Sequence to fold (466 residues):
Amino acid sequence: MKVDVDMSICLLHGQCVIAAPEVFSFDDDGGLVWVAEVDEAQRADVEAAADACPEQAILLG
Amino acid sequence: MTAPRITIVGASLAGLRTAEAVHAALPAARITLVGDEPLAPYNRPPLSKEAAETLARDTAAREAVFGKLLLRSKLSPAALSLRLGSGAVALEPGGVRLADGALVPGERVIAATGLRPRRLPLPGAEARRHVLRSFDDLVRLAPSLRPGARMVVIGGGFIGCEIAATGRKLGLEATIVEPSPQPMLRALGPRVAAAMAALHRAHGVVLLTGRSVAGFSDEGVILDDGQALAAEVIVEALGSHPNVEWLAGSGADLRDGVLVDDRMIAPGAEGLMAVGDVARFVNPLFGPEARRTEHWCVPGQTAKRVGETLAAEATGTALATRFAPMPSFWSDQHGMRLQAFGAPYLADACRVLEGELSLVGRAPVIVEYLRGGEPVGVLGLGANPAALARARARLDAALTETLTA
Ligand SMILES: Cc1cc2nc3c(=O)[nH]c(=O)nc-3n(C[C@H](O)[C@H](O)[C@H](O)COP(=O)(O)OP(=O)(O)OC[C@H]3O[C@@H](n4cnc5c(N)ncnc54)[C@H](O)[C@@H]3O)c2cc1C
Ligand code: SF4
Fold:
């Protein structure tokens, strides 16, 4: 499945990093990076991250 | 077996997330979401922040602002029946009685009715007085957030501090009246609260601490020492009351919210569960006391637990995990992000891990909160997200240890 973050609305809350650390992380400058294509096995984590994002910035496809 | 009917009362974040969790656990369940507000579930945190700013600058932007607040859901409309615009007035055998007289059946009822603002029980200045919990509240408030207007905020908690900061950004004069010695004192502790007070003052907010409001006049508010503060806009931000009146007589423990066990089931009331801001529960990460937590993360966490409980019931198995969610909250004030994990308010001491409290707002600061020498929380003030994530990982490790100890 595809993962995208709308960086025009992401406010770097980091809730996604907590919910799905294998998929979302912060680089050393504090920027958000994520894995754009993940395994079905990670679906639950990625969905939890999308739900936990206070800005609803995470788009799953 | 016939499909169970599950009725969720309160159509906001907790209600919507619970509907999704119920549907995932019991795909055949017939789910009704009842809400007293006529609006589809929407997000509240921006009401004191961006949404207030945007709507104040352009009061015609109402639909655009609401569109941004609207919560997206992965539930198909067919999976959920929404009943908006009439609140629940009583829990009756077999279902929920609404204000319009209808009975919505449900073998299981889930309370997600949240909170409403406390108000000062004093008459006067009604047309100038506001609260901020709902979109309607903001629509009423926004036209008076005009440059040069004088705003008095009663109560220096998070919502009060945020709307004061937003007011400053919009060019209002802003005064906060707070009875305790610092704003956000209970939540952040004396050292960080003092640093936040300095930040507010640096941005031109007048902070009147140790003072309270004794009355209202036609021009504004009157303080306990007789001082009169003229104000075109008065915001009462004194904290909230749980919306539990509709559950009177249900048998549930309704002292400060609805008491639920670690399955989100309310002891004493057949078939009743509770989620979100209105739920009071024990979090074993922080000891044996049941507490209510007014953070955005709680609706999602408690909703997920409802799903786990219903799935376990359906298969006749025991719950596999303990309910020990990590609390988190954020706030935005004067362009600075506060981000907390754990329960800083339980701490008896704090330690600056990074930066300096005297530089709050100008340089990143990370503070660790301790209770009896053990970490209970971490707070970033304008912190680098990567550094905060590392501090949080240490907190996680320390709290997990308490859990297994
Ligand atoms: C202005 C503001 C700013 C905030 N900022 C932040 C922030 O920055 N960070 C953070 O972590 N949290 C913040 N919060 C808190 C967060 O919004 C709440 O934790 C969250 O909204 C709780 O969701 P809930 O669904 O449990 O309750 P609520 O959102 O309160 O929803 C309860 C719903 O139930 C309805 N209802 C009540 N009684 C009845 C009835 N009898 N019948 C039917 N419906 C009923 C209510 O009208 C409401 O729609 C903020 C809250 C506000 C108000
Ligand atoms: S939770 Fe949402 S807003 Fe926060 S960093 Fe992740 S995508 Fe961005």
Summary: Chain A has one domain: 3-60. The pocket of iron/sulfur cluster (ligand 2) is lined by residues A 5, 10-16, 32, 53, 55, 57-58 (CB under 6 Å).
